[in-house]
Amino acid sequence: MKKTKTAPAEHPAERGGIFDARQLGIPKMLLLGLQHTFAMFGATVLVPIITGLDVSTTLLAAGLGTLLFHLITRGKVPAFLGSSFAFLGGFAAVAPRLADGSANLEMLPYACGGVAVAGLVYVVFSLLISAFGVKRVMRFFPPIVTGPIIISIGLILAPTAVENASTNWLLAIVALAVIIVCNIWGKGMVKIIPIILGIGAAYIVALCMNAVDFTAIRDAAWIGLPVHRNAIAKFDLNAILMIVPISLATIMEHIGDIAAISATTGKNYISDPGLARTLMGDGLATSMAGLIGGPANTTYGENTGVLAMTRIYDPRVMRIAACFAIVLSFSPKFAAVIETIPTAIIGGVSIILYGMISGVGVRNIVENRVDFTKSRNLIIAAVILVSALGINFAFESGGLSFAAGQYTITLSGLAVAAILGIVLNAVIPGNDYEFGREEEGEQAVNFKV
Fold first, then answer.
1. Considering the entire predicted model, what is its pTM?
2. What residues are paired with 18 via a beta bridge?
3. Which residue, among 204, 184, 208, has the nearest Cα to 194 in the 3D structure?
């Protein structure tokens, strides 16, 4: 009798090309959460290193902020909230480092107070959406606006990845190669945790090359409180006026990030749980972070890249990562171990993650069938891309600066691009976009994968 060929058995955690984390079990879920912790760690701790804020406080703020965000969004959005780079200019203006390069511990609490107030702007914007409806608000954010903004986010981060990788190309290439091999040809868990494996393999190579500095580990304590009384937020009107306007830019970034997560997972989180809830969660998380002496929080593109790579979209994985961040915040010794990962390895990982962010933006445009034969769409996309990248790289501050009393306020290239895109979309004839419309077309919204 002729034997019939049977189809290869489907991985128990994979259904239709997308992994179901519920089938993996607790140990593997913990590994996935740890991978997201690795993905966010490099960028998250970089902000306190630049500003002079405490690394442990920053990790605590990221963990608690993520859990607060998930609570407000009903645990539906697979997002991790890490340190926002958008507020670096505000910290530099309010609390510039001292002449010897040390942190300005006297002024940093006032900068954190400004961050706490900035988070409340998100809350106000959230209430406006609740009052007037998401459809009226989202009319200003069709795919022709959000797509190029998402692309710009990844491209703006790209030089940082290359700069970090260039500190040791061998380590960066090892991390990059292992991630690619595991993700393309790996099976089972190897395919799901390529970033951890890439970092681990590159770290072993770094140890063999004596490229790991253990000084931070020797000097760090095993256990310590992540919140320090002298770093808790203080409030000053001038500092608030300097930092709060930055939130107008980060709100635009938030919408782009939620659109990116939606495009990655195939679920429209702008509709459910709703943009009002995601903004409320991000804003309150930022205010909480500022109050305890940490930097502003933001939904992290690095973790969106991990989502795109692993196809594990279960929000519980992000909450596990948040718990890891909180645990790390109470152990300066353990946090120091993570900090020994050479910059080049983080750079190698970032080359993929940052590129995937831009790739998600391109996919968002393509799958929504935005018609670039129309001059209207070409103009909007062109202005967004050129202004975002041009302003960011043309000016040393990374944005356009203008005087506000005795202070100078800087709007990032991404913020300017978002504002210009929104305005052009509103004034140029032909905007027939309607949020939630089911049919596809030039302006339709469709977050399928």
1. 0.67
2. 15
3. 184
